[in-house]
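Dear Dr. H.,

I hope your travels went smoothly. While you were away I took the liberty of generating a structure for the chain from your last submission, since the lab meeting agenda had it listed for discussion. I wanted you to have the full record in hand beforehand rather than looking at slides cold. The sequence, exactly as received, is reproduced here:
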Amino acid sequence: MYSQALSQTLEKNSYLAIVKELKLPNFDSALGDVEYNKPYDEIVWSWMKDQHRFEKRMNAAKILLENSPPNKLLNYIREAIKSPSHDKLIQAIEFFPECDDLDESLYIYMPDKINDHMLLATLPYIPEITRVNLTETSVTDEGLKALFYLPLLERVILEPPINKTTITGKGLVFICTHPSLKSLSAYNIAISDEELAGLIKNAANLNYLSINTNFLSDKGSRVLSKSKQLLTIILKHQYAMQKNVNHSHLTIDLFKTLSKCDNLKNISLSGYDFSLHPPDDIIHCIKTMDKKVQHISLRNCKVHPSLVKTFFEIKSLKSIHVSNITLFFNQNNPVSYEAFLETVKKKIP
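The corresponding predicted structure, in token form, is as follows:
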């Protein structure tokens, strides 16, 4: 179940001020007077005590069902529709063909039908949703406004079709104004230095961020260090996005920025070239990550051995993944560069 910290991090006045500014149609009639400052399990949603609103919620759920392929996970939403006690919550919706890590999720994978209009026709009447996955849909920046009908939205995954501009960096900046958002994963979406700065400025409670960095510079990425809440940063250079477009490359200087993120515990980097010997200042910065960073992953990266060896100076590490080799550490299996080399020898004769 979701953290009771929601009641502490989400200020109702702040949320209402934002939706008032957005001028969302039918906001009051859809959500009613709900006390969002309670723990999630204790909230009495307007549709629980108002039959008219409950019927609207049922109709919204039916729209989702009618546009979804057969899947056993749809039983969750069917149960919510059929529940005579009006207490079955729909916590998450997944517009994606696969979902293994969420217990209560709705499978939907009809890209052309999942659009701005559909979100506006359904989300206002299912306000208890806290997680949304919009993968391979036709939703645009404008359609993201519908997510503000969800007062306790915690997690958003956005992945428009490759080389499509249905959702842009401006959309990412916008969605991060949602005061309860804690996790944002954005794939196939170009974001500029200026947009990343706006995203970090808006993201008051974001602790998980995954973005493509094809259009970011080292200078622009430094704004990441201004976030005091980020626990996990996943940065990917996606080569499929760079066709016929000028783009920037983040360099090994990125580690200077990451070392200044106060609460960072998990780092995942993909698609970068760190093949040159790291300068002394970079080695020093990586060593300062000790007692903070617990997991490092470098996937599809060219990595100099000296850089890998420096990672093992971080005694707080619990796992490291480099070049398709993963090591986990504990008291019985301490951090060791030699152990990593032995694993390399076994896997690469």
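Two observations you may find useful: The chain has one domain: 6-347. The two ends are 46 Å apart (CA to CA).

With kind regards,
E. W.
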